[in-house]
């Protein structure tokens, strides 16, 4: 039994049989395997299978929220700033951006969030990476460059909690500590006949971007100034952790600001497990409105999704800019190499 476990992927070991569910680290320090972490589940075979089964009509939608939409970010973050600068006496123009990826659609990278370690005062990031390593600009361990090399592509599945709650008469604000329960997710999956597969990318829509569009400027400013913001999200429980692990997701995302409910309503903080413990990307502030409409129209809640992270070594987070193609999402943040690979186009 012990030899069998040594030879199998740690991602295939049931949650309750893990030696330490808080630290499922793979690869040697500084290696590509370590840097990819759970994205290593997105093998060519998994991505090819997702493309073959999910790309049917060629329709596309983006899940990237406008960079300037969240003009009133919280937690001391600054809004996006953009300048257009003339080049060659106005013959051409260049763009200059100053922005925090966390104030719009983005993937939390492995350098974003740390975890506590029993018996020591210093928190660590995925793989045991220290804050000193992250501050060292010559050190790009567990940086975003590992994700950017091949991009994030595979089968996406949408849990449209916002539509389901509306149908059930459940009223809530996404700027509260309203929690999406595991039982809710499982009920929605059953109603929509969603069967999860190894390597899936899970999306949970709770309606943040929809509600933000209805808020007044005064309400947005009030949120920005609030020193104790409230964010609705997925519940942080041991059962949720067990389910996320056992369903073998490669990444998770939402339109929620923190993905999980914030502030924490228990002694469990999902980010400590999912990012620092498992190396699984967390997408936040994704604009899922167009995707939800497409899924409802086709009565299908799975799709192909692709996203090319910002190819900047050593950064903690990246703009996401993915897009859904035919109930699939194809990101064009930097270039179309991933599209060329999936669709075998030339030129």
From TrEMBL:
GO MF annotations in UniProt: arylformamidase activity
Q: Which InterPro entries match?
A: KFase/CYL, KFase_sf
* Stretches assigned to coiled coil: none
Q: Which Gene3D superfamilies match?
A: Putative cyclase
One GO BP annotation is: L-tryptophan catabolic process to kynurenine
- Family according to the record: Belongs to the Cyclase 1 superfamily.
Q: What is this protein called?
A: Cyclase
